[in-house]
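Notebook entry, structure prediction.
Reason for the run: the old model in the group folder had no record of what sequence produced it. Starting over properly, with the input documented here first.
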Amino acid sequence: MSEAIAVHHGAYGRCGLYKLNKSLPTHAHLESHLIFFLGGEAAYSKVGDSVYTLDNETVIAVNPLQPHSGEFGRHGGESLVVVMYIKPAWVAEMGSGDSPLRFEKNAISVTPEIENLIEQFGQQIRNSSNSDILLPLIYRLTQACALQSAGLEKQLLGDKLAQLSDSRIVKSVRLLHHHLRDDVPPEHIASEVGLSRPHFYKLFREHVGVTPSVYQNTLKIDAAIERLTNSDLPVNSIGHELGFASPASFSRFFTANVGIPPIAYRRVASVEAGKALA
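New structure, fully documented this time:
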């Protein structure tokens, strides 16, 4: 059974230490995303059309809104991993320019420096309830991985959406954000912007990088995590707010995309200066 050992949230984004033994379906994130292997059975991650092995020699790097999936426990074991989601604004504040760490390579070789930092981070995240203590290591790890992957590209996610050349796709993105709680089907969005379903899906993927359904799920997961960590709303109420018909359907959706149930995520989550949520 997959398990969250520790989850931390802060100005940088969020990170977690997990034991995983199940597959994660294709999904995406608004932030840059790094996956580090700490032990157990090697795992596999499909990023775009390529499959990579996650082990002691490789870090998986995923760009904002880049579709990816994961396979853990293929041979009956489990993988101990650290997962980081890095916010663009934090990278800029730390003096790395105005890029959200868009990696040129999805598979990053583990150098002796990165190996040492991963080991330190694994020890810190296990033993500390204070998210602030992790900040120096988070910055050093993201910086080392960015350099190893051949650097940072100068493109903000916000700029990408703002510069979309097709006004129909711009409108559809706004509608998906606006109707998040209403659970409006992408087919309805296509009709609203005057496109057929196949044409809408094709244009959306070309401009945004993922399908409308994956983008919608990304928004829902982001909103669910924000509420779980920054509010006292009951988990059932959060699911209802986000358009799920039942607590069970919300729990299944969250577990499939994050790896653990929402209740378990809230139980281990810490935010800012070690403030734990009950």
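Summary: The two ends are 22 Å apart (CA to CA).
The old model has been moved to the deprecated folder.
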